[in-house]
Amino acid sequence: MTRASVPIVAVAAGSGSLYISEAKIQPRAVSGWFATWRWLLVGLTQALFYGLPWLQWNGRQSVLFDLAARRFYVFGMVLHPQDVIYLAGLLILSAYGLFLFTAVAGRLWCGYACPQTVYTEMFLWVEHRFEGDRQARIRLDAAPWSMNKLARRGGKQTVWLAIGLWTGFTFVAYFTPARVLAGEVAALAVGPWEAFWILFYGLATYGNAGYMREQVCKYMCPYARFQSAMFDRDTLVISYDEKRGEPRGSRPRGVDPATIGRGDCIDCTLCVQVCPTGIDIRKGLQYECIGCAACIDVCDSVMDKMQSPRGLIRYATQNGMANGWSRREMWLRIARPRVLGYAGVLAVMAVAFVASLAMRAPLAADVVRDRGALARLVEGGAVENVYRMQLMNATEETLRVRVDVEGLRGATLVGGAAVTLAPAEARWVPLAVQLPTEAAQSLGAGAHAMQFRVARLGEGTGADAVLFERREKSTFVIPR
Amino acid sequence: MSDFFSSGWSIFIAAATLISLAACLALLLFASRRAPMAADNSTGHVFDEDLVEMNNPLPRWWVVLFVLTVLFAFGYVWAFPGLGAMAGQLGWTSRGELAADQARSAAAVGQVFAVYAAVPAEKLAGDERAMAIGQRLFIQNCSACHGSDARGSKGFPNLTDDDWLHGGSPEKIEETITLGRTGVMPPMAAAVGSHDDVREVAQYVMSLSGSAHDAIAASGGRRKFAVCAACHGADGKGNTAIGAPNLTDKVWLHGWGEAAIVDIVEHGKINVMPPQGGRLPAAQIHVLASYVWSLSHSRPTASR
After folding, report:
1. How many CA atoms lie within 13 A of A335 on its CB side?
2. What is the pLDDT of residue A371?
3. What are the start-end ranges of the E strands in A83-156?
4. B28-81, pLDDT tens digit by residue?
5. Superfamily of domain B183-273
6. How many interchain CB pairs under 8 A, A with B?
7. Do A215 and B59 touch (CB under 8 A)?
8. Digits of tens for pLDDT over chain A (480 positions)?
9. Domain's final residue, options A360, A377, A410
10. For helices A115-131 and A33-51, what crossing angle results, to 10°?
11. Closest CB from A14, A371, A432 relative to B151
12. Which of A102, A167, A316, A408 is close enough to A205 for a disulfide, judged by CB 3.0 to 4.6 Å?
């Protein structure tokens, strides 16, 4: 295998400065198979993001992160801060998902689902409605200020700001219930932090999607750079078929380029005009490429008009392109160790995550021994130890709970412990365990292992049925 | 700043901060003016024979942001304490922020407790929410000594029985929590007599509560108990006005048996309940006292 040499192209040669003002990119609107997919994903992700705060569940917001009460509601689940492991699990799943499909087909995340892409796409659509497509916008940029320019710019800015602020509002609505927040906004009585986050998140959306655009991907995004570590020569990337396209040049429609000594590329530069990061894909794989496939869509439409076969620019692997493999041959290379490794870890993590969530206890308990006094002697010489148990209700039902002591012969719980927990309640319950004199003497001084059995009891007729139980280890101290 | 011996360090820190900030600006200025590029837009540096460092310019907005952060830093050290010992123009201190936070939280919490302030303890004891708050206050402030279940241990009174050293009315409990108590049992060996005399008194004390005792010794101790009666009363029932324990019940705060009683009589005991009035607002103490009172009256629904 010969290693392809990448020609070094200097950026803004001759300026000599270490800083340059980046040229504004005005991408041309594009339609096609991949663009349709992107719009579908824009619709799906945004319907979720904007819609979830308005969806009710169990008489409350379906997804709500109540920071003040430290309760995190996700549909039927009530998560406590102690469940932060699930957040870690979710992040691991996301990371391995990213690794997997990046290894298979490059920067799919960047091209279709990343918020930066999604909001830029929405803002570009608005821009297109007010100011027209690429050429019209370039003309408008150059034109002097006029009523027409003011109206177009003003309209665009208004809609951009509205989308941005609505996004900020939606973000905060995950922490303050949307219906409450809407009332506060309507009454202009938003709390200081809510106001800050609505404005901050809203204006960040406005700035990033309206102005920063590809600069975010090129200079700020950490994923952009480390995704290339997942690439290999069998990763599907957006590729220009140089063998087929070169030498490029124009030709009359319907003429077989081979007969006039040219390649299929007619050098229409549409692939450059539609590129949101302003690169020329014909120079090969570049770090700026976010894998949006706009150039594929537009080139396919041009090839259709020129009555040439599609796929001059297409998803292809570097190996496939070099060896002239068919699409099937490229896909066969998918079962390589890197992909299998990522897929394996992802599958194991996903199973563990789902199983762990499914088997999540409705009731959490933590036992803490009283530290002030290890043990006390009570009337009749019996030994008592005092504990505090935190009981957490991880459901939205009222739970009836009974606590027993186990693993210590003769030990009883003073007064018994039947507790009723309100929905999502967490409460400290003091427990005193008593051991009669004889039992204590036969065990001898020291710390003895024991455990608490925490049982969730049934309701109504099955009141004594144990629906769920768990055990918490602790120790019982007998003094000398 | 008392952390340093002289103001030299303060000046050093202020100078280091300002010079660093100025140096950042100077670097940015220098780099934007400099045009050291070779004709091929490389920096002219060649490493490992053929590795050329190309000029890949940063976007201008990045530089603008950098300059803004430096300007922000100047504003920050002007407004906040950042230059050695200088306090900053806004007069901000972490202590002041803590005080403001505490005042805010006291105002917020105060509203919760204000509702209960006028409610008598007997009524509060039936209020589930107030008792849940009282239990949390108890666990945070009292359980270290009295135990999470409030039943105490040796030297620390059980708060769930009907035996009260200083009176068990809600008002008295509130007073005990607010002002604290010091229980003093003076060493009485000299007044009682010999070690054997003290043992006889101990047997008599045990007989008062009907505990197992040596009847002969107890009858001998009966006369010597006269010196104890000044505080504990002729009948040994104690006196809550001065915190003298009732000796006729079976509550033994400092240990049961002849040896424990002899030890107390001979060496005395000072037992302290620290005052909480300076730590907790009166409204919280009211709820706490109601909770403690409820422990020996109606059982709180919160924990049983």
Report:
1. 3
2. 84
3. none
4. 888 777 665 667 777 778 889 888 887 777 888 888 899 999 999 999 999 999
5. Cytochrome c-like domain (1.10.760.10)
6. 109
7. yes
8. 344 444 544 444 445 566 777 888 999 999 999 999 999 999 999 999 999 999 998 889 999 999 988 899 998 888 998 889 999 999 999 999 999 999 999 999 999 999 999 999 999 999 999 999 999 999 999 999 999 999 999 999 999 999 999 999 999 999 999 999 999 999 999 999 999 999 999 999 999 999 999 999 988 998 888 888 888 999 999 999 999 988 898 888 878 888 888 899 999 999 999 999 999 999 988 889 999 999 999 999 999 998 889 999 999 999 999 998 998 999 999 999 999 999 999 999 999 999 999 888 888 899 999 888 888 888 777 899 999 999 999 888 888 899 999 988 889 998 777 888 888 888 888 899 999 988 888 988 899 999 999 998 887 665 677 888 889 999 999 988
9. A360
10. 110
11. A432
12. A167
Write out the residues of chain A at the interface with chain B, using a CB-CB cutoff of 8 A. 8, 10-22, 212, 215, 218-219, 370-373, 375-377, 379, 384, 386-388, 414-415, 418-419, 427-432
> Token pair of A138, please?
């370039």
- Determine the distance from the C-alpha atom of residue A54 to the mean position of all C-alpha atoms in its chain, rounded to a whole number: 20
Beta bridge partners of A341: none
pLDDT beyond 50 at B302: no
Which strands, in side-by-side order, build the sheet including A399-406? A417-421, A399-406, A446-457, A466-478
Same-domain check for residues A192 and A217: yes
Write the residue in B35, B153, B304 that is nearest to A415 by C-beta: B304
What is the rounded CA–CA span in Å between residue B67 and residue B293? 65
Angle between helices A33-51 and A147-172 (to 10 degrees): 50
Which residues on chain B are in Cβ contact (under 8 Å) with A375? Answer: 153
Query: B61 vs A373: CB contact, 8 Å cut-off?
Result: no
Specify if A5 maps to a domain.
no
Q: Quote ipTM for the complex.
A: 0.74
Nearest CA in chain A to B150: A430
Q: Distance from B190 to chain A by nearest Cα, in Å?
A: 31
Contact A18 B57 (CB under 8 A): yes
- Report the gap between the CA of B238 and the closest CA in chain A (Å): 21
Domain carrying residue A307: 18-360
**Quick check: do B103-180+274-295 and B183-273 share a fold?**
yes
Q: How many CB atoms within 10 Å of residue A199?
A: 15
Cβ-contact B271, B155 below 8 angstroms: yes
What is the Cα–Cα distance from A333 to A322, expressed in whole angstroms? 14
The C-alpha of A34 sits at a distance from chain B's nearest C-alpha, in angstroms, of 30
Tell me the average pLDDT across B83-92.
88
User: CA torsion, points B61, B67, B71, B77, in degrees to nearest 10?
Assistant: 120
> Which residues of B fall below an 8 Å CB-CB distance to A?
31-32, 34-37, 40-42, 52, 54-63, 132, 135-136, 139, 143-145, 147-154, 156, 250, 302-304
User: Amino acid identity of A208?
Assistant: N
Contacts of A15 in chain B (CB under 8 A): 57
User: What topology does CATH give the domain B103-180+274-295?
Assistant: Cytochrome Bc1 Complex; Chain D, domain 2 (1.10.760)
Residue A54: partners with Cβ closer than 8 Å, 6 or more residues away: A178, A179
Distance CA A235, CA A110 (A): 15
A431–B139 C-beta distance less than 8 A: no
Indicate the domain borders of chain B.
8-79, 103-180+274-295, 183-273
Q: Structural domain tally of chain A?
A: 2
Residues of B in contact with A21 (CB under 8 A): 59-60
